[in-house]
Design brief:
CATH superfamily: Thiolase/Chalcone synthase
Structural class: alpha/beta
Distance between the termini: 9 Å
Number of domains: 1
Order of helices and strands: HHEHHHEHEEH
CATH topology: Peroxisomal Thiolase, Chain A, domain 1
Radius of gyration: 17 Å
Shape: globular
Largest sheet: 4 strands, mixed
CATH class: Alpha Beta
Number of strands: 4
Strand order of the largest sheet: 2-1-3-4
């Protein structure tokens, strides 16, 4: 959904099928998408949907990224650990391990959209609107960025959630903890 409007719906409960269908439906063109782990795919696609409507500059965009979740890349980390522990088929792939880093999803978003501002990925027990609000407002007040893409992107097994929003200094909606929580709870 964007601003309460459903842009894609798929009844398929398996994440890999859902995300491939969404990628095709949204006409996302990014070959490295298929190398990403599931957390990165989810964050990348959610950000891409939101940023498509921003008419971004082709050269450089001053948009910071502040994401968070509750388990970092634990889902992919478990798979990597299982490949190490399997003595019969021992073949841990460095490519899998590299794509387990939460900053990979931020990096891929930044590369595609030419974002050259600050980016951070935080881990909390639960959605933390106060942290997003304080950090984003600080970046905007200090003029380190023009806009901030904030959110919660969490993936574990077949349970996943992406909530992103874009904030700027002179936005239409007040950027405070209550409003962020209200928007998050619409999901």
């Amino acid at each position: 959904m964007i601003n309460g409007n459903v842009i894609f719906s798929d009844e398929n409960e398996e994440f890999s099928t859902f995300i491939k269908n969404a990628y095709k439906f949204l006409k996302t063109d990014y070959p490295k998408f298929f190398k990403m782990d599931n957390l990165s795919k989810l964050a990348f696609l959610a950000a891409d949907v939101l940023l498509k409507s921003e008419n971004l500059n082709e050269e450089e965009n001053n948009i910071a990224l502040i994401f968070s979740n509750k388990a970092s890349s634990l889902n992919t980390d478990r798979k990597h650990q299982a490949s190490i522990e399997n003595e019969a088929e021992y073949f841990p792939s460095p490519a899998v391990f590299v794509y387990t880093l939460p900053n990979i999803c931020l990096g891929e978003i930044s590369i595609k959209r030419k974002l050259y501002s600050e980016n951070s990925f935080f881990i909390f027990d639960r959605f933390n609107a106060e942290h997003l609000q304080l950090y984003a407002n600080n970046l905007l007040r200090s003029e380190k960025t023009e806009k901030v893409l904030c959110g919660w992107v969490d993936f574990d097994e077949n349970s996943y959630e992406a909530f992103l929003y874009l904030v700027e200094k002179e936005g239409k909606i007040e950027h405070n903890t209550e409003e962020i929580n209200r928007l998050y709870n619409i999901l």
